């Protein structure tokens, strides 16, 4: 299952390419977006995927639209909004929107999918596409960073220990793995908003030891690894796709 909602509200970039990669591998894919046009074009590229049009920031609509989706074994949660406001200018509307999409929907959709896995008695894998911003600060992301950080922390509690109970995600005993992928700025629609300042973009790339930005394909490959049995003993972890930024 794929959920993708960047600030431009389109199914593009990481979400779209993940759908395409899973479809190419033979998986039955449910693609979620609030934008019908993106779902329509994706359905033409990937015949047989199941498109679901819903705003993941709307709890009741999400519950209704996803309640009838068939059995899910793998979940990729890629929903987020990046509302570029300095701390002193953050509005209630911006905070609520960021919270609803970036954090609350992560919990809701993961909970729905996990309940289905447990009811069927099957193992599964949940991958949350988070951000390097959970570990470092970027300009004008006063809302995105703390909300994203709590999202990553909450999903990481899929481990089989007592801490996960506090987050309502004690999934380890059910053989459900929970991990995240944390990329640096990737030049998707959202990434272009963050790197619109050429000076910021230059400094970011210079900070990366590899002297490059991450490509969408790099992120998708990490997602596929965490979904697959090749990561069978990996849970409660996060893969950094940051071109070495945090190591420098």
Automatic annotation (TrEMBL):
The lineage of its organism: Eukaryota, Metazoa, Chordata, Craniata, Vertebrata. This is Carbonyl reductase [NADPH] 2. One of its GO terms (molecular function) is carbonyl reductase (NADPH) activity. Keywords: NADP. The keyword NADP applies. GO terms for biological process: glucose metabolic process; xylulose metabolic process. InterPro entries: L-xylulose/Carbonyl_redctase, NAD(P)-bd_dom_sf, SDR_fam. Belongs to the short-chain dehydrogenases/reductases (SDR) family. It comes from Camelus dromedarius.
